Amino acid sequence: MNENPMVHDLSLPVEHDGRALSGVASMSRAVTPGEIDVSHGAILYLEDVTVSFDGFRALNELSLSIDVGELRCIIGPNGAGKTTMMDVITGKTAPDSGKVFLGQTIDLTRMNEPSIARAGIGRKFQKPTVFEQHPVWENLELAMKTDKRWLASLRARLDRSAQARIEETLSLIRLEGEALRPAGELSHGQKQRLEIGMLLMQQPALLLLDEPAAGMTDDETMELAALLNHLRGTCSMMVVEHDMEFVAALAGETGKVTVMAEGRVLAHGTLDEVKRDAGVVESYLGR
Ligand SMILES: Nc1ncnc2c1ncn2[C@@H]1O[C@H](COP(=O)(O)OP(=O)(O)OP(=O)(O)O)[C@@H](O)[C@H]1O
Ligand SMILES: [Mg+2]
């Protein structure tokens, strides 16, 4: 189906062997179909990506890459193209030109939204979308990736491991005490954590979060930062955010921050480095 034999056909469900939570091939192992080749260290690679809306370049030859296991914060003024970049990565918007790869070999520009999600990219939108009438634990169960062929032969074993994963996720998102409550009764911050839990049930290799702290109280924001910091190593993450305290809590002193403006990368470095960048001060932080 693909001209390039190195590119996996991801129209089939991705197989999971249950060993790696993230579904990412270990750096030293040969790649098997459905796994992501991160042998060069990058989980996501964008090169010269351009997106135009009626001649206006929302992305203008944007290039960036995210290392496997990295938690990358993206900041930048309104209209910089941050959400458009996530739309391109998830297949919602097709770029006019440029390369978008998951790992070394998976060309995301050739895939549709469902197959990109199956390949291991989870996306968190700003507004939480949970099943309000259903209990918290059932939201997690409904979100779980299920491969019908597995289900047929391994029903009982899968049920037990599914139960264990739900419990593990409930504790990770700190909603053990709310497991039986309808999701509609949760606070905004709890709903946001539940939605992240639902994404985690699909075992993403890369999680994209667009302004996850928007509308949260200060306490909820710091609780979310703690959760994302805790997820390090489980999956790679790209977090777009305006709240600089939240960004500081995620980036720490050594984490890399990318500043976008006018559809491209304006600066890249530690939070301290980009804060001192003259162009960043002028176009974003100094305003
Ligand atoms: N579907 C679309 N049609 C036309 N223009 C669009 C569309 N989507 C985005 N744009 C424009 O592209 C530019 C980039 O928008 P985008 O939403 O990606 O910015 P952003 O960095 O996410 O901003 P914010 O911080 O406000 O969320 C904006 O000027 C926006 O108006
Ligand atoms: Mg946006």
Automatic annotation (TrEMBL):
GO cellular component: a single term: plasma membrane
Sorted UniProt keywords: ATP-binding, Nucleotide-binding, Transport
Keyword ATP-binding among UniProt keywords: yes
GO molecular function: ATP binding; ATP hydrolysis activity
Family matches, as InterPro entries: ABC_AA/LPS_Transport, ABC_transporter-like_ATP-bd, ABC_transporter-like_CS, ABC_transptr_urea_ATP-bd_UrtD, P-loop_NTPase
Domain ABC transporter, first and last residues per copy: 44-287
NCBIfam families: urea_trans_UrtD
The protein, known as: Urea ABC transporter ATP-binding protein UrtD
Record organism: Paraburkholderia franconis
